[in-house]
Specification:
The chain is built from 7 helices and 7 strands, in the order αβαβαβββββαααα. The protein has 182 residues and is of the alpha/beta class. It folds into 2 domains: 110 residues, Beta Polymerase, domain 2, CATH 3.30.460.40; 59 residues. A 7-stranded mixed beta sheet has the order 3-4-5-2-1-7-6. The longest helix has 15 residues.
Length: 182
């Protein structure tokens, strides 16, 4: 896969590029967090970073990820990977399991890119993920991100309600607020 234009690369383009190379090296990964909002809003929202969960518990997976990132020109700086030609985006990896709040039964969407299968949270799970940040970290901007995705993508409102009900506490009122803002 060809390198992107580093000075203008979008979250979506960078995700496809990195996920393709991870997949080519046997690393199963899922894009999560704000970059998913960027993908589903066609770049209206800019996250500034890509959060990627690797889904294998293989003991050598981290070494493979570091090798792939180094081969792509990234440098590890603290917990981030930064490309010297890309000053507007960085990469952060999270270890498994893939979860949203207390829900560990996440089935990501799959996209075929140049013969490789890469994964991203579904629009429904993206909304739940953003609501989780609103619920647990009081991040009002994440509620707004959930609304942005909901207005641009098809999603399962009943599943979001089920998830909010199962999370309990503030999640039920967050669901009502989300629904009312739609």
């Amino acid at each position: 896969m060809q390198s992107p234009n580093w000075s203008t690369v979008t979250e979506s383009e960078l995700w496809e590029y990195i996920a393709w190379h991870l997949s080519a090296n046997g690393v199963d990964s899922v894009l999560v967090g704000g970059a998913v909002v960027s993908v589903y809003s066609d770049g209206i929202y800019k996250s500034g970073d890509l959060d990627i969960v690797y889904t294998s518990y293989n003991s050598s997976i981290w070494e493979t990820i570091q090798r792939v990132m180094t081969n792509l020109g990234f440098k590890k700086v603290t917990r981030h990977f930064i490309h010297p030609e890309c000053d507007h985006l960085f990469i952060e990896y999270a270890s498994p399991p893939l979860s949203i709040g207390e829900d560990y039964q996440i089935i990501p969407d799959v996209k075929r890119v140049s013969g490789k299968m890469i994964k991203i949270l579904s629009p429904t799970d993206c909304i739940k993920d953003r609501l989780a940040s609103y619920i647990y970290f009081n991040a009002r901007e994440c509620l707004e991100q959930a609304i942005l995705v909901a207005k641009r993508q098809s999603f399962n409102l009943k599943e979001i309600k089920r998830w909010c009900d199962s999370e309990g506490g503030k999640a039920k009122s967050a669901f009502e607020e989300f629904k009312n803002l739609l």
